[in-house]
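Project standup — Tuesday

K.O.: blocked on the structure for the chain from last sprint. Re-posting the sequence here as requested.
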Amino acid sequence: MFVQVVHNISDKGAWTERLAEFAKEESPPEFTLHSSVTSADGTKAFCLWEVQSVDALSGFLDGATTGAAQNTYYAIDENALATSLPRSTAAR
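H.V.: unblocked you, prediction finished:
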């Protein structure tokens, strides 16, 4: 399943530190990060993941971003009109 995450960044310094730490580590093999972007003002970031469940992803990301951002998770309706997603890694 694809899950969109909106990170509401509350501490830009802590967020930058968390990203640096995150870049050094590998995500669990069952998680695929397809894209991530940050708003120009640095108050929000958006990530698109392919995972087994929202709960599994939130358990992973909420711990990694504690004190830096509040995360909101959206399971994506892959069949909705105007939805454009990368090819699923599950099909590979």
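K.O.: great, moving the ticket to review. The longest strand covers residues 2-9. Helices lie at 12-24, 54-64.
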